[in-house]
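Work through this:
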Amino acid sequence: MNKIIAIAINNYLDSSIPNLSNCVNDINKLIDVLSRRYEYDSIELFNEHEQTTYDFLYSALYNEFINSCQDDSILVLFAGHGEFNSTLGTSYWLCSDSIKNRTTTWFNLSELLRFFNVAPCRNIALISDSCFSGAIFENYRGGGLDAIEGKRSRQAMTSGGIETVSDGEVGKNSPFSLVLEGVLNANQSNNLSFNNLAENTILTFDKNRKQTPRAGSLSNSGHEGGAYFFKLKEVGRHNFIRPLQIPLEINDKIKFESEFEIPFFNENNYFESTYVNVFTQQLGYSIINDIRMFFSDDLEYHIERSNQTGYSIYVAYSIETINDRFLSIVISRCDYFGGNHENHCIYAINFALTPTRKITLADLLDCTGFNSVKEYLLQLVQEYEEEQCRDTLKRVISEYTGYDNFSEIPFSFNSHYLTIYFIDKVPHAIKQCGIMDIPIEKIKFRI
């Protein structure tokens, strides 16, 4: 498996550590070009506070590497603050909960190299855009393809040596990230070696900047002279949608099966992918937070119960519409936490394009001739809902107390139907009444 593990930290709890502006954007840009142009099977993203603490990152990275398989190749991306201890000659990452004057709360990169050393996987590469990260290298050596093929590799590139590096202008990208992205975008080689990527990045980097990117093999990490390669792929017209995995990282004493994927959109000619990705990632983390809050209410009970019955959590997505005018995304969640039945939730995010903007049901529907969205929906229920569900949905709509104009009600649409999801508003025994399909040709759009 060819995997990306991406870590981005903009915000820090310790007020003496200045927040950064561009790390999340930098990492998303790199994920975009890597997943769009190169062969990757799995992407894991850590960019929320609870997923960038010291304890979380240590546990997550340890588990990723010791549980890797021999044929795996893993690329680690990091953007955030870094520090250097001149007495020990050691580089560190600052985690979101690190304390400026307490080195025991910093992530020691020597620990990361130990993970690399014991990892069964063949190839590991690290790209770190942080201050003082260049103290981790030994010089790499050449030898031709025959000398490196099949051997284990542990390589890295950093945005600077033992020095501070620039975060860039607010709302843009760091200088290092911009150059790296440009090199990855411009490459035409089917197999771009990590060394060549590093050399091209260093040569392209502005010589007037007060930082110099570094690259090399990693000492004490299991490096045997091999090389990491970025494998170029053919990209079709619609190959700009990739599954993005977000680890749940729930207490490991709770036994559960899980799959959690949301869409990640590469740059394309239809819409602003960065804008859309913000909403999908926020929704993903919101779902994770809900699950964690549920378990935290009675942790010991869930540990015991999960060992008896087994818990499961599945989150998946579908793209209902993607064209020159609209993007409609449905994210579905199914979980079982030891109750009488599984729980099902539907989330939906919709966008109008050119310009890209998020829309609600009221934005979409032309309610001309009706006094409100509620009155229009009641009429649609009367016309298009099956008789056995009609009264239930009328009651749900009439008693709805959410934001004005039903802005919280999830909906999606495709070439056949506008679908409105009242699934969380109806009793479990009649969940089938919570999904209302209206023929798309009967809907008049406002936009």
Observations:
- The first helix runs from residue 23 to 37.
